[in-house]
Amino acid sequence: MRASTSGFDRRPRPGAGPAPRTRRTDSRRPGVPLPRTSGGARTPQHWFAERLLLILSGRRPVHLLMGHTTAEAYEALIHAADRAPFAFSGTPVLRRVGATQPAPGAVEAFARVTVGERTRAIAFRLEQSPDGSWRCAALELDTMNPGHQDPPHPTAPPRHRPDGRRR
Length: 167
What we know:
Oligomer: single chain
CATH architecture of the domain at 42-145: Roll
Strand order of the largest sheet: 3-4-5-6
Region (Disordered): 1-42, 143-167
Largest sheet: 4 strands, antiparallel
Structural class: alpha+beta
Helix content: 10-25%
CATH topology of the domain at 42-145: Nuclear Transport Factor 2, Chain: A
């Protein structure tokens, strides 16, 4: 700062202080937010659908949901993630999440996902534990039926040895 008749000159130096606000210059638009509950928090089915999409598209590892699933649902997730069904057909987009509550503490939900030109489906069941947290108890993809098999993802490492045993 420079000395002045009143003591010190209070003009900021170039580069000091907060950066000026600028307009966004790229043409991308933010995604449409998922509907929220009245309290501003996402519902459990939205939370799980988002994480399932991240895992099934190969963007996050399966263990992201460890502790948030039952053993059976975790095994189904490992099996589904081995094939990375949403990873190589374009960027997957979560289009809709819906749910029904067949009993108190249970939610049966679905997620509609667009991958390239194709619409895919994920179905899952959530069960509330005594501490109030939700766990995925069942998982099914539209391609998990025995008559249909997605090709393995080209960059996904195999999870099983040729003799069928797990690594």
